[in-house]
Design goal:
There is one protein chain. About 75% of the residues lie in helices and about 0% in strands. By secondary structure, it is an all-alpha fold. Helix 1 (about 1-15) packs antiparallel against helix 2. The chain is globular and about 65 Å long. It binds protoporphyrin IX containing FE (2 copies). One protoporphyrin IX containing FE binds near residues 4, 12 and 44.
Length: about 425
């Protein structure tokens, strides 16, 4: 999170003052943007959610993880792939397709990790002592299986030179992939954590198991074929656009079943949730999930997207989904799980709380500033203005975004310090009352 948000901050500075950093090749905007998205998405949110899954699966199946050593190999391989990703992207080696930028050899590493994780979880499942499969287990398995295949096809692994097809079919494939990463990697893993953590911290049983399974199967059925809503302004076949748009609106079903279920579980118990910093982060994640998924169907409508597409509006939505929803849930998972696996309380619940507020204020600010900038861009372009004549009008918003970024980067540093100290320090523990 520290490295990824710093990269985002460098990108934000470049959008304010393009020459300020002197055009150092390995951090020019085209490269630092890809480093930022890959780091925050796969290295921060992805690692935290996969880590959470490795806690959930054995706990919910009441069985030790099948092979602890294989799990550790996955941690090292995954992180090696991320480091290799940063180095190669900064050198300009990229497949240049959104969220599929990593080059072929690194793709193989990522796929190997996903395959090993599946094998490890599946063997654990086969040896399980708990017969009932709680919905989080469904979500984790769904995520690992779907992500493996999405990643394999989306990166056109059989074409090592380009990692892509040609022309419009490639655009459709790329957004089938790009959307699946959001909907079948981040979303189910984050929802799995929320389904696990919310009942425990609110000290109440899950409101409805039936509803939870309806949500699981309906997301699997709908999410896979709505990626073309990223291509409404491109010459994709109309029938595919219609499917994508109707499916995007239909997404309200899986989203609302999850949220209604979680919020009815915690009804009247918000106090309990907020007394646990992990629960607090996850709760905020559910609110961002609602906002993202109300905005998503709206911006899938062609009449709305004509205004918002290619503008900072989409960047606001992206941060709301990946940072507000998946990122805050991932942080909640870290703070919930860490004391339980170390057997020690957090080093400082006050610092964790500070990080919570920094991220929340930063994210809310991002949403306001980027959405406003997006509307200015969209309106200007619809009125026939060129891109460069609109730039001075969004300058202030870019300055504000970079400034708000400092809060989130600051939050990341505080979190790193807190987690490091929680693991390695024995000092300060006595003053804290956190479970
Ligand atoms: C963990 C927190 C963060 C996450 C998960 C995140 C995620 C993302 C994602 C998914 C995108 C791609 C958006 C798109 O293509 O639609 C993006 C772009 C970007 N982010 Fe972040 N981000 C985070 C924090 C930050 C911070 C702290 C800054 C610093 C100000 C920042 C600055 C940027 C910039 C400048 C872009 C490129 C926008 C553009 O191309 O116009 N991000 N981020
Ligand atoms: C009901 C669910 C959702 C719908 C219908 C939806 C819809 C959309 C649409 C139509 C776009 C493209 C906008 C454009 O380019 O003009 C978009 C972009 C995006 N969405 Fe969502 N969204 C949903 C949920 C989410 C969630 C949960 C996340 C994060 C986990 C997310 C992350 C993103 C990101 C990162 C982008 C930017 C992609 C890019 O780089 O262009 N979305 N979404």
């Amino acid at each position: 999170m520290v490295a990824g948000t710093l990269a985002g901050f460098i990108g934000a500075i470049e959008l304010v003052a393009p020459d300020f950093l002197g055009n150092i090749p390995w951090i020019v905007f085209g490269r630092i943007r890809q480093i930022h998205t890959n780091l925050v998405m796969f290295a921060f949110v992805g690692s935290a959610l996969l880590g959470g899954a490795h806690y959930l699966v054995p706990t919910l199946l009441r069985t030790d993880l099948y092979n602890e050593r294989m799990g550790k190999v996955c941690v090292w391989l995954w992180n090696l792939a991320m480091v290799a990703g940063v180095i190669t992207l900064s050198m300009g080696y990229t497949q240049n397709r959104e969220y599929a930028e990593l080059i072929w050899p690194i793709d193989l590493g990522v796929l190997l990790v996903l395959a090993l994780i599946f094998y490890n979880f599946f063997q654990t499942l086969k040896r399980r002592k708990e017969n009932l499969l709680y919905v989080s287990v469904w979500y984790v398995f769904g995520a690992v299986i779907f992500t493996f295949f999405s990643y394999f096809f989306g990166n056109a692994v059989w074409n090592p030179d380009t990692g892509s097809l040609i022309g419009m079919p490639d655009a459709i494939l790329a957004w089938f992939y790009g959307h699946n990463i959001l909907g079948f990697f981040f979303t189910p893993l984050a929802v799995a954590l929320a389904y696990y953590i919310i009942p425990i911290v609110s000290r109440a049983p899950l409101y409805s198991h039936t509803l939870s399974l309806i949500g699981f199967w309906s997301i699997l059925m709908i999410y896979s074929h709505i990626g073309t809503h990223h291509l409404l302004q491109a010459p994709a076949p109309t029938w595919l656009k219609v499917i994508a748009i109707t499916g995007s609106v239909g997404m309200l079903m899986p989203v609302m079943t999850v949220l209604i279920n979680l919020w009815l579980t915690m009804r009247g118990r918000l106090g309990n949730i907020h007394s646990d910093i992990g629960g607090k982060f996850v709760f905020a994640g559910t609110v961002w999930y609602l906002l993202t998924c109300l905005q998503g169907p709206l911006q899938s409508l062609p009449s709305v997207q004509r205004l918002t597409h290619f503008t900072n509006w989409v960047i606001a939505h992206a941060h709301m989904g990946v940072l507000g929803f998946a990122g805050m849930t991932a942080l909640g998972g870290i703070y919930f799980i860490l004391p339980r696996i170390t057997g020690k309380p957090l080093y400082s619940s006050r610092l964790a709380d500070l990080q919570y507020w920094l991220v929340l204020i930063g994210m809310t600010g991002f949403f306001a500033v980027l959405t406003a900038a997006g509307l200015i861009q969209g309106n200007g372009w619809l009125n026939g203005e060129t891109v460069y004549r609109i730039l001075p009008q969004i300058y202030l918003y870019m300055v504000l975004r970079a400034s708000l970024g400092i809060l989130i980067v600051g939050g990341a540093f505080i979190g790193l310090y807190n987690i490091f100290m929680s693991i390695y320090s024995t000092k300060g523990v006595a003053h804290e009352d956190h479970p």
